[in-house]
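Hello Y.,

Per our agreement to keep a running log of every chain we model this quarter, I'm adding this entry. I've kept the format consistent with earlier entries: sequence first, then predicted structure.
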Amino acid sequence: MDLYYLPFASPSRAVVMTAAAVGVTPNKIVVNTYEKEQLKPEYLKINPQHTVPTLVDNGFSVWESRAIMVYLAEKYGKDDSLFPKDPQKQAVVNQRLHFDLGVLTQAFGEYYYPIFRDEAPADPEKFKKVEAAFEFLNTFLEGEKYVAGDHFTVADIAILVTVTTYLAVNFKIDSYPNVLKWYNSVQKEAPGWEENVEAAKEYTRRLEAAQKK
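Predicted structure for the entry above:
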């Protein structure tokens, strides 16, 4: 099993943590997207969309991090706890995965990437989307220990990784008490946690570099 990934990127970190959660150890192959390695012909053969990460399992290729996470949970999980088979429980996990992608992660990209890549000034209007995303997450976690049901799932992994990325760029979650409580608690159950936090520090370095220019 080969995992083509960019170590610090949130989607790659989420897949690495899921692999750890199901007890598999893929052969990790770094794809430096900043050097356009994802456009090499040999990579396009396994992923014509040239996104990262990509998992190749016995010749089967799958990309998009959340699809990989679900694949790993369903194929290699010892049971269905990480990705429930029950349609209603599974629907909640899927909703949170879509929320992570379409709201929480998107808000991060819209606000922070212009600062990283273009050295643009912070946009207060875009920051409001960040705050709204965390308000939603805080609501989801009202009275709950996990983001999707009564136990740890791939939704917790995905959102843990995203929140770790926010923390790496000095976003404060203290104003969202349910998020803070969940984050401090659930990280203790998350396999590969230390690697996730260490890799996310690259976001800190990139933000600091952008602010110095």
